[in-house]
Amino acid sequence: MKMNLKNIAQLFIGIGMIAITACSSNNKKETTAENTGAAILVSVATASANDQQGLNISGQIEAAQNVNISTRLMGYITKLNVKVGDHVSKGQLLVSISNDDILAKRAQADAMLNEAEAALKNAAKDYERYTNLYKQQSASAKELDNITLQYNAARSRVEAAKQSRNEVDAMLSYSNLTAPFAGIVTQKLADAGSMANPGMPLLTIEQSGSYQVSASVPENSINQIHQGTEVMITIKAIDKTIKGTVSQINQSSQFTGGQYIIKISLPDNEKNGLYAGMYANVSIPVKRSAAIATNSDEVMVPVSSIIYKDQLTGLYTVGSNNTALLRWVRLGKNAGDKVEVLSGLEKNEQFIVSADGKLFNGAVIKIK
Question: What residues have CB less than 8 Å from 27, skipping those under 6 apart?
Answer without folding.
Answer: none
